[in-house]
Design a protein that fits this description.
It contains no helices and 21 strands. By secondary structure, it is mainly beta. Strands 3, 6, 7, 10, 11 and 12 form a 6-stranded mixed sheet that branches. The chain has a 5-stranded mixed sheet with strand order 15-21-20-17-18, with no helix packed on it. One of its GO terms (cellular component) is cytoplasm.
């Protein structure tokens, strides 16, 4: 349980001053991060601790999901700065039956009062997100009538529910081949075998085959997991990239052909955006494959991958 926050209020009646103190806590039945997945049933409890009796006309619980984005770009003419901004609700629930034992003008006695609640999250909600450009937030708000007596806000995290275990193309290994031709050193080929879908906390193997006709010296191979973000509002869009993690390989034999094995542990990240109509924040991922040469320009290629919510039950890596 979170530490209670005590609030003191003062009222005047016939020149007498009355003081009442209360604490309101909103507890979610979730993991330690307060996270849920789209499509889940969220459960929790509102706890009111009253030091003396209180009279309320009503108390409501409101669930809100809000998505907002804002950025600017310079322009060559007046007004010289264009503003891109939008705000929209992706979730709005008003629950009046949580405090159903409160009739109009009810008096709650001093003590501790527990009010369980539950509500369903739609399956197509976007994940909680926060950047300098956009935010997606979810909250539960408690408010009484009269409003000055009780106000409390608690946030919770939502992750998109992505499961691809029924789709064979995401369960089997994939092969991607890339080439580079040197002016005086022949052709260089790299073939990357890996999986194209995975969940956070899974370890992804890489089998890299190199064909190095002229035995060009290689400094390292770097494979980075890149999060690609597209922000869309009614007046335009913006793009952003974030590097989530990377894996490197440096031990080369400099044979004409060689095989390299290494792994990448996927961190706790937001799943890819799927089955959401017109998202303000669209999340996708790529593996960025780089072969770094000390005396030549690097070879760089991207391959699309998908981050799911449920661990992917991959076929054998053979």
């Amino acid at each position: 349980m979170k530490k209670a926050e005590w609030l003191s209020y003062f009222c005047c009646e016939r020149n007498n001053i009355f003081t009442f103190t209360m604490a309101c806590t909103i507890n979610f039945n979730s993991d330690s991060t307060g996270s849920f997945y789209a499509g889940d049933i969220v459960t929790g409890t509102v706890i009111l601790e009253l030091k003396n009796e209180q009279k309320f006309q009503s108390i409501d619980l409101k669930v809100t999901g809000l998505c907002k984005a804002h950025w600017t770009r310079p322009m060559p003419t007046m007004p010289y700065i264009k503003i891109y901004s939008e705000k929209k609700k992706v979730l709005s629930l008003l629950m009046t039956d949580i405090f159903r034992d409160l009739s109009v003008g009810s008096v709650l006695p001093a003590g501790v009062h527990h009010y369980p609640f539950h509500f369903a999250l739609p399956p197509d909600l976007p994940s909680t997100f926060d950047s300098s450009v956009a935010k997606i937030t979810y909250s539960v708000k408690i408010q009484s009538k009269p409003a000055y007596k009780l106000r409390k806000l608690a946030t919770f995290n939502v992750f998109g529910n992505v499961n691809v275990n029924h789709m064979d193309e995401y369960l089997m290994p994939t092969f991607n081949e890339f080439h580079k031709t040197f002016r005086n050193s022949g052709k260089f080929t790299i073939c990357v075998k890996t999986y194209r879908a995975f969940a956070p906390r899974q370890t992804i193997p890489f089998e890299v085959t190199l064909v190095n006709e002229r035995k060009v010296k290689i400094r390292k191979i770097v494979i980075s997991l890149i999060q690609k973000i597209k922000y869309s509002v009614h007046s335009g869009y913006a793009d952003e990239e974030r590097k989530m993690c990377k894996a490197e390989y440096r031990k080369f034999s400099l044979n004409i052909a060689e095989l390299c094995f290494f792994n990448m542990e996927i961190p706790h990240i937001i799943p890819s955006t799927m089955d959401i109509e017109d998202p303000m924040v669209h999340i996708s991922y790529i593996f960025r494959i780089q072969v770094i040469f000390p005396f030549h320009t690097s070879l760089q290629e991207d391959m699309s991958v998908l981050v799911s919510t449920a661990p992917v039950l991959h076929y054998d890596f053979k």
